[in-house]
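Title: Comparing notes on inverse folding

I've been comparing how different people in this forum approach sequence design from structure. To keep things fair, I'm posting one structure and asking everyone to reply with a full sequence. Here's the target:
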């Protein structure tokens, strides 16, 4: 009867899987073993697996220094493998023993984020996104320096540090993936982050155009909160999807938690004690106005007509009041 031996890491994830049809399997750090252990706490000949006449597997400790421990942490010298999936620890190396008829998990379909891996792994996409973000930062520094004596060229030196700051999120996810035994996916995470920054910049330009044309009404204000929130939800969802998180409730919770900072952050900011003039980003040049503006002459004509109509209505109201006053005493005498 065939048996499978899975070597596990400290998080319980499979790092190696071996299948044997022979009746004796040796385990240890020695190069003559069937399974060579890399754990320095295991011996050269640590343990041996044997198939007896009753077709039952048995794990035997070969008088090793640190011994063989079962799932309960108890040291055993000889253990019968009665069921598939039993785990043991040889030194510090964890392993799981499976029979060939052990049921396997259902096939998992590829996630939407995993289908984007070929695109997000492209170096060209990452380079273009980083350059666009750097150009956007340089343009903002140039706008801030207009009309001031300070040299805005010096602020361009901050762009590499800002790009590194934007890269902190992918780096943290890569470290998390490394410690949890997952693939870091650093390049796709970087490409996703800087692509979202480019989309955020495009949205800010579109929002300024909407505010300018819609006069900052309720529709533009609602879009200012809904669209960035949707963009953040998609960003964090795909970021955690690239980590191959199996628990959906954990992925949904982390996505909602990090996306909620967009709504909570303004409430955390202290209110300014002194009011100062601020730049109105809703103001744009006249060519950016989508509807045809009213000319000065037509505005003056409309104002004159409004005043003439208002004066005429006021005159009619004054003429009617005396007639109503004269009718009152006559009605009372009758």
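Reply #1:
Here's my take.
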């Amino acid at each position: 009867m065939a048996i499978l031996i899975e070597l596990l890491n400290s998080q319980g994830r499979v790092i190696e899987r071996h299948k044997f049809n022979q009746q004796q399997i040796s385990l240890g750090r020695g190069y003559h073993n069937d399974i060579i252990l890399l754990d320095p706490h295991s011996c050269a000949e640590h343990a041996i697996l044997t198939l007896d006449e009753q077709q039952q597997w048995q794990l035997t400790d070969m008088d090793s220094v640190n011994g063989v421990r079962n799932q309960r942490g108890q040291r055993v010298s000889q253990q019968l493998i009665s069921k598939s999936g039993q785990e043991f620890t040889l030194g510090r190396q964890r392993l799981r023993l499976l029979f060939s008829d052990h049921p396997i998990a259902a096939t998992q379909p590829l996630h939407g984020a995993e289908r984007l891996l070929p695109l997000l792994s492209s170096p060209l996409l990452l380079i273009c996104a980083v350059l666009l973000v750097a150009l956007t930062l340089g343009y903002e520094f140039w706008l801030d320096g207009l009309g001031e004596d300070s040299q805005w060229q010096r602020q361009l030196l901050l762009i590499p540090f800002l790009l590194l700051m934007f890269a902190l999120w992918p780096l943290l996810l890569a470290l998390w993936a490394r410690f949890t035994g997952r693939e870091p996916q650093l390049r796709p995470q970087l490409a996703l982050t800087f692509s979202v920054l480019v989309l955020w910049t495009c949205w800010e330009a579109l929002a300024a155009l909407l505010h300018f044309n819609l006069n900052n009404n309720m529709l533009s204000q609602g879009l200012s909160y809904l669209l960035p929130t949707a963009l953040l939800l998609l960003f964090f969802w795909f970021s955690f999807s690239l980590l191959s998180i199996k628990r959906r409730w954990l992925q949904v919770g982390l996505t909602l938690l990090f996306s909620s900072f967009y709504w909570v952050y303004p409430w955390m900011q202290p209110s300014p004690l002194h009011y100062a003039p601020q730049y109105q980003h809703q103001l744009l040049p006249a060519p950016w106005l989508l509807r045809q503006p009213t000319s000065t002459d037509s505005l003056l004509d409309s104002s004159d007509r409004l005043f003439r109509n208002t004066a005429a209505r006021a005159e009619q109201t004054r003429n009617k009041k005396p007639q109503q006053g004269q009718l009152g005493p006559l009605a009372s005498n009758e």
